[in-house]
């Protein structure tokens, strides 16, 4: 341990002598200051727990731990899961028990419990060690025995607290998802043993599982009249014992009681009589099981998981069932071989029925027949070979308990751990994943389960959920009981494996030591050429010098070919505040660990690799300074320069600060105005010369704007000054990238830009020749403008005579805010002719002009009497009104008309009808008026900046695509933004849509015209799509064609717009020209219908007189089906019901196409009559069933005949199990007299492949059963074979 002062680490370690009598002051501890202690390993050895005398009390055990004490009475595992105690050494080393735990990958506790049990079984571990892996014959990654061997070696020799099991599960062929599947430990035991047997074929271990775990029993039936007995021999690996007999409310009290019930025979009488081969008739008989042979390792499974037929759910039985530490199995061996004249020959089922249990193994009615004898049988069928004195062999069937696998939880899930007795010291241990601890016999008794109350039927619901699930006993036989192999007894290949694993572990330990002494900190660097901030993570050893760290950072940022290393240095940096805290002059040879304050998991600061030009000198950054980014503002050019960084102290006054800036930017301090931006849109002019920077609100990192000119702007109030307006625009301008439609008529942009260039229409052509914009053709728009000229001329002249007061002669004065600097355009400080900007101040002389203009659009389009030509003309006039003048003067247009005349005429037209602002499809979304309640323009005070120029997008955007880079004030409304884009899109704002593109390339339409662009940020992308924008009460609808007899019954056609109050027939009329132009469908209104679409399911048929929002609920992004009719529409009333029928022909194994059946009521009899009419099947022979799943309710022809609920016993369609209440239901029907076609195996397999392929293409499953639990499988080749034909 090394003491050190705060902010001053001691470079050389000075270990404290723990045996010294010095006081803390004498040991160089500083009073009143923070003193730091560094814990290090002594002589390379990690700290160890001091083992005390075993006779010490419990208190001494508690004193050894640094951390919380265990709960009272809990030494290890208890009835509830107890979190283990941690100490410094327990994190580094294995448990003090000497045993190593296993890491739980996620839900692999069941696997860990079984693996620890097998490891603690001497006979299994020793046999596994004797098996030798041949790398030339098999891949070690997929070899299950080899990975188990490695795991056991690590469990025996590792110094870790716990080791991973990922290599073992990888050899099973499992991926990471299997770690999240919880399985039954008994199921895993069975599957793992099967896999090991397969892997050990033709080796010495080929019969190991059977030798250790396999027993034999006899399954017999004996005639009670003649004594004739039929029987067969079965093998088992475990004995399943029921906790509670079927139908009983009383659980078995002990394992012995359950074993007796297991072999208790049942009487077959009454309807269950047995046909006796000898008597040649049905007779009463006795059926049961007899144990013939018990294995060396006896496994008992306590069947605690059951099914409750009342609730129809799986349950766990937590009833108490005791089990002894020593179990005498001699009382359960069969010695009964009554003098039966004949028996059937024995058939050994072998592994075929290995360990399986039949449903008739447990009697529901216990018989007290005294004919059951008990004794010992030596597997021989001869009565003369039986031992008549069972007592002589009784000691050979005494089993001792050594493993209890415990389950804590419910039938839905829980946690496994194992309580295992070591045969080395006869001590019990709890192996709970990575925690291993000693336990006592009292802890084992707590796993019996149950509660202190009576054992009633529901007692298990209130009992502890932690109880024994699997018990493993070992036969007490001194001749066979083995001990674990010692190290010197290991086979040579195991010794080599031990050495190999030790070397790997030492290597990992060294790597962890390096990691423990490595500083990991964020590294930033502003690329000196690209001017892009790069980010990386610097990992440097704490003993490396600062100079070496600079070299590492230099290479990490790939600056070798860009700048010399002498022009780079590391400085302390706060990325969040963009603040350079300090530099490290003269500390190039200081260890990084001391400069950074030691090795930490996270740092409260970062590092910046600062660069300079060869002719520059690095500035010294001292702690306590504040960083100020100074932007110089040029009012004449209306530009804001790139920042210049200066460092100041918070104690400096404003006057001193101005002098400091004056030296940095070479501006006179006397006329300098300094504006501090404390936060976004919070601009503060520093006017008090004697005030300190701290008092003005300066912090670590600050941004100021300075201006020093001789204009009179400084005499104005700051919020009215030109400087404030420029800074306000600068703070609120964002850069957007706009993707234009592929066929964007760019000449319209050229035309409108020229209108802004000057008021003299005679110079338009000359100006336009100089403007280079998006290239394209605009014949249609120009033609509309030509047509509109004559029609609007009379209106404009009338307006000029009535209301023109000479304002049109005023010159246009606009403030061109053209030079906001951006990373892509910093060098261009002047207005470029090639990049002509479009800008305006959204201010209107008449507050109603803009509002009424929008209203006129809505009213004109909704006015049925207005011709389409007039509507187009009035709408197209909007295109000429792109630019508004800040000084309320009309802007001369290319056709000689001014904006005032156009807006006035449109206002007049709008006032004739109902005043309604056009909006989104949602009624409650508000209006899109650009004016507040007082009628005052929302943009009256704010300067709405807009500048657009062509932009060369990255490759891959596709040919024909055109991009704009737009700088725009984000306080502008979407409506105004769309008006600005009109010249570039070549269409009116009401004829194109704006889609915002998110990071995942998902596009969402922006439709709320009254909302601003405040939610947008720099470099957001926008896609423009041609198409009419929505108005209030309108909804965008996706139209799909319903093709009931096609492989893909749902085909997208087009996007349409439906309006509130429109009838279905009107919507069909509007769809007809769109269907003809976009889809090539020539239809009349009587040739197709519209119907509800719910995902892929067709629903209610919409009748022509139905009205949207009144009879049919409609919403945003609505979807409908369009169905082409074969004949006249049969649906005339809402009381009718249209269902889709399909005939199943079992004799041909095929389904006919769909046919629609229209019913006048929901009567089943009417449905039968209709099916009889279309099929010709006699009424009494028709059977029908409702289809399952989504349309078209596909089902395999191999399953349809028996899987569907044919001929339900109901009289109406709207009751269970049909529930047909709406149009579109699928009905299968058949002729019940038609026989099912008999298939050969070859035909069935061929048909199965075809059906599986067909159903996969349509996206439908073969079955519709609920999700089942994933089966536990171990793949012998290390990876599952995925059968694509399976569901």
From TrEMBL:
<dbReference type="InterPro" id="IPR018200">
    <property type="entry name" value="USP_CS"/>
</dbReference>
<dbReference type="GO" id="GO:0006508">
    <property type="term" value="P:proteolysis"/>
</dbReference>
<dbReference type="GO" id="GO:0005829">
    <property type="term" value="C:cytosol"/>
</dbReference>
<feature type="compositionally biased region" description="Basic and acidic residues">
    <location>
        <begin position="852"/>
        <end position="862"/>
    </location>
</feature>
<dbReference type="InterPro" id="IPR038765">
    <property type="entry name" value="Papain-like_cys_pep_sf"/>
</dbReference>
<feature type="compositionally biased region" description="Low complexity">
    <location>
        <begin position="794"/>
        <end position="811"/>
    </location>
</feature>
<feature type="compositionally biased region" description="Acidic residues">
    <location>
        <begin position="919"/>
        <end position="932"/>
    </location>
</feature>
<dbReference type="GO" id="GO:0005634">
    <property type="term" value="C:nucleus"/>
</dbReference>
<dbReference type="InterPro" id="IPR045578">
    <property type="entry name" value="USP47_C"/>
</dbReference>
<dbReference type="GO" id="GO:0004843">
    <property type="term" value="F:cysteine-type deubiquitinase activity"/>
</dbReference>
<feature type="compositionally biased region" description="Basic and acidic residues">
    <location>
        <begin position="909"/>
        <end position="918"/>
    </location>
</feature>
<dbReference type="InterPro" id="IPR001394">
    <property type="entry name" value="Peptidase_C19_UCH"/>
</dbReference>
<keyword id="KW-0788">Thiol protease</keyword>
<keyword id="KW-0175">Coiled coil</keyword>
<feature type="compositionally biased region" description="Basic and acidic residues">
    <location>
        <begin position="824"/>
        <end position="840"/>
    </location>
</feature>
<feature type="region of interest" description="Disordered">
    <location>
        <begin position="1"/>
        <end position="25"/>
    </location>
</feature>
<dbReference type="Pfam" id="PF00443">
    <property type="entry name" value="UCH"/>
</dbReference>
<keyword id="KW-0378">Hydrolase</keyword>
<feature type="region of interest" description="Disordered">
    <location>
        <begin position="792"/>
        <end position="880"/>
    </location>
</feature>
<dbReference type="GO" id="GO:0016579">
    <property type="term" value="P:protein deubiquitination"/>
</dbReference>
<dbReference type="Pfam" id="PF19718">
    <property type="entry name" value="USP47_C"/>
</dbReference>
<feature type="compositionally biased region" description="Polar residues">
    <location>
        <begin position="342"/>
        <end position="364"/>
    </location>
</feature>
<feature type="region of interest" description="Disordered">
    <location>
        <begin position="746"/>
        <end position="773"/>
    </location>
</feature>
<feature type="coiled-coil region">
    <location>
        <begin position="490"/>
        <end position="517"/>
    </location>
</feature>
<feature type="domain" description="USP">
    <location>
        <begin position="100"/>
        <end position="476"/>
    </location>
</feature>
<feature type="region of interest" description="Disordered">
    <location>
        <begin position="337"/>
        <end position="364"/>
    </location>
</feature>
<feature type="region of interest" description="Disordered">
    <location>
        <begin position="895"/>
        <end position="935"/>
    </location>
</feature>
<dbReference type="Pfam" id="PF25985">
    <property type="entry name" value="Ubiquitin_USP47_N"/>
</dbReference>
<dbReference type="InterPro" id="IPR050164">
    <property type="entry name" value="Peptidase_C19"/>
</dbReference>
<feature type="compositionally biased region" description="Polar residues">
    <location>
        <begin position="841"/>
        <end position="850"/>
    </location>
</feature>
<protein>
    <recommendedName>
        <fullName>Ubiquitin carboxyl-terminal hydrolase 47</fullName>
        <ecNumber>3.4.19.12</ecNumber>
    </recommendedName>
</protein>
<feature type="compositionally biased region" description="Basic and acidic residues">
    <location>
        <begin position="14"/>
        <end position="24"/>
    </location>
</feature>
<keyword id="KW-0645">Protease</keyword>
<dbReference type="InterPro" id="IPR028889">
    <property type="entry name" value="USP"/>
</dbReference>
<feature type="compositionally biased region" description="Low complexity">
    <location>
        <begin position="865"/>
        <end position="880"/>
    </location>
</feature>
<keyword id="KW-0833">Ubl conjugation pathway</keyword>
């Amino acid at each position: 341990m090394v003491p050190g002062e705060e902010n001053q680490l001691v470079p050389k370690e000075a270990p404290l002598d723990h045996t010294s009598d010095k006081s803390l002051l004498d040991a160089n501890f500083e009073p009143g200051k923070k003193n730091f202690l560094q814990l290090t390993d002594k002589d390379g050895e990690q700290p160890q727990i001091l083992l005390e005398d075993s006779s010490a009390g419990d208190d001494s055990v508690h004193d050894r731990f640094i951390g919380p004490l265990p709960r009272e009475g809990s030494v290890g595992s208890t009835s509830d899961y107890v979190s283990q105690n941690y100490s410094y050494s327990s994190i580094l080393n294995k448990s003090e028990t000497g045993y190593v735990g296993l890491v739980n990958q996620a839900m692999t506790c069941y696997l860990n419990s079984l693996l620890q049990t097998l490891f603690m079984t001497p006979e299994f571990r020793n046999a596994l060690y004797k098996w030798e892996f041949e790398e030339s014959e098999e891949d070690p990654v997929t070899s299950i025995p080899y990975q188990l061997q490695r795991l056991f070696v690590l469990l025996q020799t590792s110094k870790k607290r716990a080791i991973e099991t990922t290599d073992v599960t990888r050899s099973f062929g499992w991926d990471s998802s299997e770690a999240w599947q919880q399985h039954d430990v008994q199921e895993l035991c069975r599957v793992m043993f099967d896999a090991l047997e397969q892997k050990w074929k033709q080796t010495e271990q080929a019969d190991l599982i059977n030798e250790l775990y396999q027993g034999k029993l006899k399954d017999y039936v004996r005639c009670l009249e003649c004594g004739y007995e039929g029987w067969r021999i079965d093998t088992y690996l475990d004995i399943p014992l029921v906790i509670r007999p079927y139908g009983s409310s009383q659980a078995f009290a002990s394992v012995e009681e359950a074993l007796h019930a297991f072999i208790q025979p049942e009487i077959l009488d009454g309807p269950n009589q047995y046909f006796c081969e000898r008597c040649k008739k049905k007779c009463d008989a006795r059926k049961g099981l007899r144990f013939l042979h018990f294995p060396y390792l006896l496994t008992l499974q306590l069947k605690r998981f059951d099914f409750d037929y009342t609730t129809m759910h799986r349950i766990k039985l937590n009833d108490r069932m005791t089990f002894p530490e020593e179990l005498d199995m001699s009382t359960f061996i069969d010695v009964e071989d009554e003098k039966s004249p004949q028996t059937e020959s024995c058939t050994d089922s072998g592994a075929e029925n290995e360990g399986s249990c039949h449903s008739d193994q447990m009697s529901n009615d216990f018989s007290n027949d005294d004919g059951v004898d008990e004794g010992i049988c030596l597997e021989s069928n001869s009565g003369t070979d039986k031992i008549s004195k069972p007592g002589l062999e009784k000691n050979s069937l005494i089993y001792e308990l050594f493993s209890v696998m415990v389950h804590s939880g419910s039938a839905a899930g829980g946690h496994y751990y194992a309580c295992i007795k070591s045969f080395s010291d006869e001590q019990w241990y709890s192996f709970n994943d990575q925690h291993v601890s000693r336990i006592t016999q009292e802890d084992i008794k707590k796993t019996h389960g149950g509660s202190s109350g009576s054992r009633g039927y529901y007692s298990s619901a209130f009992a502890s959920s932690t109880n024994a699930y699997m018990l493993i006993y070992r036969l007490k036989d001194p001749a066979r009981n083995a001990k674990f192999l010692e190290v010197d007894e290991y086979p040579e290949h195991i010794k080599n494996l031990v050495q190999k694993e030790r070397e790997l572990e030492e290597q990992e330990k060294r790597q962890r030591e390096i990691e423990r002494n490595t500083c990991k900190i964020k590294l930033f660097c502003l690329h000196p050429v690209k001017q892009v901030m790069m980010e990386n993570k610097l990992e440097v050893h704490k003993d490396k010098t600062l100079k070496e760290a600079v070299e590492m950072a230099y290479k990490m940022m790939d600056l070798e070919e860009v700048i010399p290393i002498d022009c780079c240095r590391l400085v302390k940096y706060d990325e969040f505040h963009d603040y350079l805290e300090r530099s490290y002059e003269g500390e190039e040879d200081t260890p990084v660990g001391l400069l950074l304050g030691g090795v930490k998991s996270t740092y409260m600061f970062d590092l910046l690799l600062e660069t300079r030009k060869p002719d520059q000198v690095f500035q010294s950054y001292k702690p306590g300074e504040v960083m100020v980014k100074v932007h110089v503002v040029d009012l004449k050019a209306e530009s804001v320069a790139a920042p210049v960084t200066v460092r100041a102290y918070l104690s400096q006054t404003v006057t001193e600060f101005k002098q400091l800036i004056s030296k940095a930017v070479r501006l006179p301090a006397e006329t300098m105005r300094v504006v501090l931006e404390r936060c976004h849109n919070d601009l503060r002019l520093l006017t008090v010369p004697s005030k300190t920077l701290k008092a003005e609100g300066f912090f670590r990192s600050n941004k100021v704007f300075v201006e020093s000119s001789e204009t009179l702007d400084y005499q104005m109030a700051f919020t009215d000054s030109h400087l404030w307006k420029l800074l306000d625009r600068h703070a609120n301008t964002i850069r957007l990238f706009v993707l234009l439609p592929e066929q964007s008529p760019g000449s319209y942009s050229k035309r409108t830009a020229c209108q802004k260039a000057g008021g003299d229409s005679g110079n338009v052509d000359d100006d336009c020749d100089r403007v280079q914009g998006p290239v394209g053709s605009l014949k249609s728009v120009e033609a509309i403008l030509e047509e509109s000229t004559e029609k609007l001329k009379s209106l404009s002249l009338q307006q000029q005579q009535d209301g023109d007061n000479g304002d049109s002669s005023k010159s246009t004065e606009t403030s061109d805010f053209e030079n906001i600097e951006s990373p892509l355009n910093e060098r261009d400080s002047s207005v470029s002719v090639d990049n002509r900007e479009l800008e305006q101040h959204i201010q209107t002389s008449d507050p109603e002009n803009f509002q009424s203009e929008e209203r006129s659009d809505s009213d004109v389009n909704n006015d049925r009497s207005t011709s389409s030509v007039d509507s187009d003309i009035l709408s197209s006039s909007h295109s000429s009104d792109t630019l508004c003048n800040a000084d309320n003067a009309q802007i001369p247009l290319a056709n000689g008309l001014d904006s005032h005349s156009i807006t006035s005429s449109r206002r007049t037209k709008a006032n004739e009808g109902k005043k309604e602002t056009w909006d989104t499809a949602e009624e409650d979304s508000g209006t899109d008026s650009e004016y507040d309640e007082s009628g005052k323009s929302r943009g009256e005070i704010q300067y709405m900046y807009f500048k657009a120029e062509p932009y060369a997008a990255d490759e891959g955007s596709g040919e024909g695509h055109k991009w704009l880079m737009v700088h725009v004030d984000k306080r502008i409304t979407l409506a105004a933004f769309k008006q600005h884009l009109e010249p570039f899109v070549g269409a009116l704002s009401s004829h194109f849509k704006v889609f915002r593109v998110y990071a995942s390339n998902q596009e969402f339409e922006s439709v709320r015209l009254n909302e601003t662009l405040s939610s947008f940020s720099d470099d957001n992308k926008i896609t423009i799509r041609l198409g009419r924008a929505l108005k209030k009460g309108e909804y965008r609808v996706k139209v799909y064609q319903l093709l009931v007899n096609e492989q893909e019954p749902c085909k997208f056609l087009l996007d349409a717009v439906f309006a509130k109050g429109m009838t279905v027939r009107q919507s069909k009329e509007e769809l007809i020209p769109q269907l003809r132009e976009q889809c090539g469908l020539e239809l009349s209104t009587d040739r197709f219908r519209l119907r509800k679409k719910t995902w892929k399911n067709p629903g209610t048929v919409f009748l022509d007189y139905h009205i949207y929002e009144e009879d049919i609920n409609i919403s945003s992004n609505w979807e409908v089906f369009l169905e082409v009719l074969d004949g006249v529409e049969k649906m005339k009333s809402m009381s009718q019901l249209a269902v889709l029928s399909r005939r199943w022909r079992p004799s041909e194994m095929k389904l006919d196409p769909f046919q629609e059946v229209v019913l006048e009521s929901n009567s089943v009899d009417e449905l039968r009559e209709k099916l009889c009419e279309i099929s010709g099947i006699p009424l009494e022979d028709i059977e029908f069933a409702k289809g399952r799943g989504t349309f078209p309710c596909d089902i395999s022809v191999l399953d349809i005949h028996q899987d569907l609920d044919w001929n339900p016993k109901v009289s109406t369609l709207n009751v269970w199990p049909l529930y047909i209440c709406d149009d579109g239901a699928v009905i299968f029907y058949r002729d019940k007299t038609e026989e099912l076609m008999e298939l050969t195996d070859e035909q069935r397999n061929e048909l199965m492949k075809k059906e599986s392929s067909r159903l996969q293409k349509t996206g439908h499953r073969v079955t519709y059963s609920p999700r089942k639990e994933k089966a536990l499988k171990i793949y012998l080749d290390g990876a599952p074979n995925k059968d694509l034909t399976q569901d």
